[in-house]
Amino acid sequence: MQLQLRGITKRFGDLVANDDISVTFEPGQIHALLGENGAGKSTLMNVLYGLLQPDAGQIVVDGEPLVFHSPAGAIAAGIGMVHQHFMLVPVFTVAENVELGAESVGPFGFLKTADAARAVERVSAEYRLAVDPNAVVEDLPVGIQQRVEIVKALTREAQCLILDEPTAVLTPQETDELLSIVRGLRDAGKTIVLITHKLREVREAADVITVIRRGRVVAESVSPQTSEVELASLMVGREVSLVVDKPSLEVGEPVLRVNQLSVYDTLDRAIVDDVSFDVRAGEVLCIAGVQGNGQSELVEALVGLHDRSEGRIDLGEKRIDGLSTKGILDLGVGYVPEDREHDGLVGSFSLAHNMVLDTIGESPWSRRGVINYGLINENGQNLIEQYDVRATNAQVAASTLSGGNKQKVVLAREMSRSLRLLIASQPTRGLDVGSIEFVHRQIIQARQSGVGVIVVSTELDEVYALADRILVMYAGRIAGVVTPDVGRDDLGLLMAGATTS
Amino acid sequence: MSEPITPSTGLSGSKTEDTLHPGTEPPDSLTGELRRRVLSINLAVTLLAFVLALAIGAVLIAASAPSVIESLGYFFARPFDTFAAVFNSVYSAYSALFQGALLDVNELREGDVSAAFYPLSETFTVSAPLILAGLAVAIPFRAGLFNIGAQGQMAFAAIGGGLVGFGLSLPAGVHLLASLAAAMVFGALWAGLVGLLKAKTGAHEVITTIMLNYIAIYLLGWVLNQDWFQREGRNDPISPILNESATFPLIFGGGLRIHFGILFSIGAVIVVWWMMTKTTTGFRIQTVGANAAAARTAGMNVGRIWIVAMLWAGAMAGLAVSMNVNGTDKVVTAGIVGNIGFDAITVALLGRGSPFGVLAAGLLIGGLRAGGLAMQASTGTPIDIVLVLQALIVLFIAAPALVRAVFRLRGKTADSLTIAKGWGS
């Protein structure tokens, strides 16, 4: 099925999200749609899937212009979508999930789930997806859940499959498997649209690349042989350096020692299980792992945000387990939380106020409980200039900033104190290439000044760019501690649970 | 450095924040416009809710007026009679309501200034405790807590304020302040308990305040039957009369009930405003209310801030009941709190949680109450209509979409609500 978008324009108020976008997706091709967050890829796909109506332009399927008023129209036309966040009911079986929304009923209104199960088996066998129709979805690993989404689309006779950031939640191995499945689908003549901002995958899997920037197509029919640096420049619109310049440095004494740390959930299950490691001054320790293997809880325990932990943590010569978060931060720990919207910033507060969230009770911001707002605003203004936060001034509400600028505000706040240890959890998740570059430079700068740094990341590119040592976590335990010269495959195996021999 | 606005991904209501880049356009354009519009809609909604409530109230007044019902009997013969009756009943009721709240025009014409200003004096007298109790709801509200317990906090505070008021003999002025302080401390303890329970055990404040309301109200009833609290020679639940030295002096006297308590009320609004906007306590309260997770991550002790906010609330509730104990009633009875602790929720909502908003809302509700009595006396329209108005105002404020729909204000469009989440952002 050939799918054509002709001159699609979509506005939200003054904002032009898609500006006259034309692109053709051919059958038997994997077509990558590459762009930064906020470039307009998603709006375009929402238009294509009938979730949004374009202000101008048309959608042409096999030469015939169609109008989709809802996803049902798009599905009927043979377009299937695999969302970034799966649209599955966790307690249902695969077959039940697949029939959901298109249930067929027999006499007396009984569901014909067996038919759905047979359809799953048929599709699964045809494209070698290995999905068990009777498995309950919540028991399945994330990679398989994603295949259920693919199966769901295929059982509805999708000729064109749109995959939205499909590898965001996958391990490197799962990513490879997914890409090979996608290649199989292409060889079977399906039209594949791959939406992503990951350059490596694009180069590996795509047959043709279209780059979108600020709502416009800035490059079409780009060959996958194009270098990563070139692709990144197209995405961002200027030269970017993908490699962080990381001068070698003598590492110092350990600043953080973690001894037999365990963290429990409310059901007394160990989320972090007997973990010991240390971080030295002037080194970046990356904690790698697939999301949900205890990294978040480990970091929370380090900064005193988790009250169900045991073990010993020393910062320098001071024991810090059991201290309050405030006590730990005051000892020179900077903390960039994983979820900056939720934990890092107060959206309704101005940038200046957000910059002093953790030091408001201290001189000079306040004396005897009375706040000096003049100084705070001045400080905010200085910091947004110093950290290149794109905002009119320090008085705008934090919620109005883009993700990258929000992260700069958090970094500015944490790094404006004098630090011994910087803990950054998923510091670049969801950021555009330009912001990632900035954040990485800041982290390396902290390392150069002799601060011990912990970076929690699920992105291998980030781990390789920053780490002096890599600690891999799997199921709450340390699967291994390796140096960055370890190969991607070996690192992937560790993340999947293999232990170092 | 100016780069164009980055196009948005799924622009669903709350998601807009990810997609707008302020500082990339001249100031005052997109973000400025958006914020200004949101703020103005909120203020507009508040005012329009009031207008809408008056309109519905007018329907009820007309429907229950005998003259209207009578004229309906011959509607087809002389329809104009019905319209005139509707207009007259609504007009006379509302003008009685407003005159009863502000200024008695007839008395003014006759030159009796004191009687002319009687309505305004009543409005301030009724408003004084409402404003303070409104603060008792508004302060925790800013910390993200819903204090349903002003009623109980006031009841408990009445015990403390009353004991000091009639039990001690102190010089005038000092005695009053001591009685007020006792009420504030008692109120703060009762409210602080809620904060403590929430901080230590996670008990939800709505549940605990409701339960503590019952306990405080029955405790007050029990205390009023004890020898050390009940007035000598009385069998009904009533305390001794407060010593003169522990009561608020009247401001004008001469039949006007307005007393110096109203100045404490306005003073408290200013103090709370200062606390909320100029001190670290206020900053922390607002941080916790806006985003408790971020407050915790920044090292704030969220539980302690909850307790502090509740202590402030209880002190305000204590001061509120003192307006009655030391001002209008000069005695503690089982009904000393009236319904003020619950009306306070209306006041705080109407005032959108800001101290000066609470002041305005307290005066408005107080005016409606004072005017309602006058309206009932002069036109026979039941005072219940005022309660209906009050309830309608809260209803419309709680459902701004309803008001927007009625007045066709621009708000979130349906378009922006139907977009799937999770698109690459």
Features:
heterodimer, A: 501 residues, alpha/beta, 6-stranded mixed sheet, 17 helices, 22 strands, B: 425 residues, mainly alpha, ABC transporter involved in vitamin B12 uptake, BtuC, 68% helix, disordered N terminus, disordered C terminus
In total, the number of strands of chain B is: 0
List how many beta strands of chain A DSSP finds: 22
**Overall body shape of chain B:** globular
Termini separation of chain A: 50 Å
**SS class of chain B:** mainly alpha
Sheet having the most strands of chain A: 6 strands, mixed
* Principal-axes shape call of chain A: globular
Radius of gyration of chain B: 25 Å
Most strands sheet of chain B: none
Low-confidence stretches of chain A: none
Q: Mean of residue pLDDT of chain B?
A: 83
Rg result of chain A: 25 Å
Helix content of chain B: 55-70%
CATH hierarchy class name of chain B: Mainly Alpha
Measured as a percent range, the helix fraction of chain A is 25-40%
The proportion of residues in beta strands of chain A is 25-35%
Low-confidence stretches of chain B: 1-41, 412-425
The greatest inter-chain interface is formed by: A-B, 70 and 53 residues
What is the end-to-end distance of chain B? 23 Å
Description:
The complex is a heterodimer of chains A (501) and B (425). Chain A is built from 17 helices and 22 strands. Chain A has helices spanning 41-48, 71-76, 94-99, 113-126, 142-155, 172-187, 199-205, 228-236, 295-302, 325-330, 340-344, 351-354, 373-386, 403-415, 433-448, 460-466, 488-495; strands at 3-12, 15-25, 29-34, 56-61, 64-66, 79-82, 160-164, 191-196, 208-213, 216-222, 254-264, 270-280, 284-288, 309-315, 318-319, 333-336, 366-367, 370-371, 421-425, 452-457, 469-474, 477-482. A six-stranded mixed beta sheet of chain A has the order 6-7-8-3-9-10, with helices on both faces. The radius of gyration of chain A is 25 Å and the shape is globular. The model of chain A has no long low-confidence stretch (mean pLDDT 87). Chain B has 425 residues and is an all-alpha fold. Chain B has a single domain, classed as ABC transporter involved in vitamin B12 uptake, BtuC (Orthogonal Bundle), CATH 1.10.3470. The longest helix of chain B has 35 residues, at 30-64. The two termini of chain B are 23 Å apart. The relative contact order of chain B is 0.17. The model of chain B is unreliable at 1-41 and 412-425 (pLDDT under 50). Classes of the chains: A alpha/beta (501), B mainly alpha (425). Chains A and B meet through strand 2, helix 1, helix 10, helix 11 and strand 18 of A and helix 1, helix 2, helix 12 and helix 13 of B.
